[in-house]
């Protein structure tokens, strides 16, 4: 109970819960479109943007670093599109090249500035690799909340268009929906949430809060709105429990604890959900007996 009433815990929990709930909703669109791995590549690509933003400004300010992360994330996405559309490189190969290349660049730049006396105050850079939500400030929570609210407002405004586009892009074009605009909106929302979550979850693990809640939602329902609701709740619950575990147990980083909580939720859903293994076997057994 002492932890639950702690000011520092409440600040960190609020930031991670808001982020994970918004990421669960937006990430569901990418998963349903079969583009979840693009988020992984973009997530890794944002790390060199963080380092470059610090190198150019010399300031370890979250809002400035997020601008750098978003810029490199957009460049990575455009590069993936260019490689797949203008060459014979497959999407899987393009994702692997961009993911490893950009993240390798980020690590190289990080090693350079940490060994260079011209750059001071580089200790916080490591937090953007695996995340360290324990160092989230009230200003970071405000920024995460702002980005999450902007993403959700955009999602709600274009909800019907996004829903039609996700399930039938051909029909979406037929009725006059601007598919390119919807694609850009989904990209913007995804990159914004990835950038906002770097400090708390890290570039390596950030994609999990976009994918895992969506997978949980899809195991519990076939209805789009229900999938979104379950994904948001699963993300928020895992973020809260992961933050609590990392606060209660010394030496466990918040980002990995959140991802671990999400993974446990995925396993439980795979077993117990309506579309899970246990109920599926039970229905098959009942069907066999009836025949």
UniProtKB/TrEMBL annotation:
Q: Does the keyword Transport apply?
A: yes
- Keywords for this protein: Cell membrane, Membrane, Transmembrane, Transmembrane helix, Transport
A Pfam family annotated for this UniProt entry: ABC-3
| Places the protein is found | Cell membrane
Any stretches that span the bilayer, and where are they? 6-25, 62-82, 94-113, 141-159, 171-195, 201-220, 227-245, 257-278
The answer, when asked if Nuclease is one of the entry's keywords, is no
| Membrane topology listed for this record | Multi-pass membrane protein
Major localisation: membrane
Q: Which CDD domains match?
A: TM_ABC_iron-siderophores_like
Which protein family is named in the record? Belongs to the ABC-3 integral membrane protein family.
Tell me what this protein is called.
Manganese/zinc/iron transport system permease protein
Q: Which organism is it from?
A: Jeotgalicoccus aerolatus
């Amino acid at each position: 109970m002492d932890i639950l009433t702690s000011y520092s815990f409440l600040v960190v929990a609020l930031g991670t819960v808001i982020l994970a709930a918004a990421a669960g909703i937006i990430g569901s669109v990418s998963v349903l479109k079969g583009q979840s791995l693009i988020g992984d590549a973009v997530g890794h690509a944002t790390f060199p943007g963080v380092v470059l933003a610090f190198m150019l400004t010399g300031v370890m300010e979250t809002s400035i670093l997020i601008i750098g992360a978003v810029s490199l994330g957009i460049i990575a996405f455009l590069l993936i599109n260019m490689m797949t559309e203008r060459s014979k490189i497959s999407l899987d190969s393009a994702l692997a090249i961009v993911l490893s290349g950009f993240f390798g660049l980020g690590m190289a730049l990080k090693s350079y500035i940490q060994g260079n006396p011209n750059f001071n105050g580089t200790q916080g850079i490591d937090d953007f690799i695996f995340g360290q939500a324990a160092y989230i400030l009230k200003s970071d929570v405000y920024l995460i909340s702002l980005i999450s609210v902007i993403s959700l407002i955009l999602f709600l405004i274009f909800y019907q268009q996004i829903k039609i586009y996700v399930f039938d892009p051909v029909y979406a074009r037929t009725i006059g929906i601007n598919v390119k605009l919807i694609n850009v909106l989904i990209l913007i929302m995804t990159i914004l949430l990835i950038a906002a979550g770097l400090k708390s979850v890290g570039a390596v693990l950030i994609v999990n809060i976009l994918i895992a809640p969506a997978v949980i939602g899809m195991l519990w329902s076939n209805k789009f709105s229900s999938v979104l609701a379950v994904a948001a709740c699963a993300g928020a619950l895992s973020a809260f429990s992961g933050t609590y575990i990392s606060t209660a147990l010394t030496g466990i980083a918040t980002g990995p604890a959140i991802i671990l909580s999400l993974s446990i939720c995925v396993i439980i859903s795979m077993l117990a959900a309506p579309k899970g293994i246990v109920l599926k076997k039970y229905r098959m057994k009942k069907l066999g007996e009836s025949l």
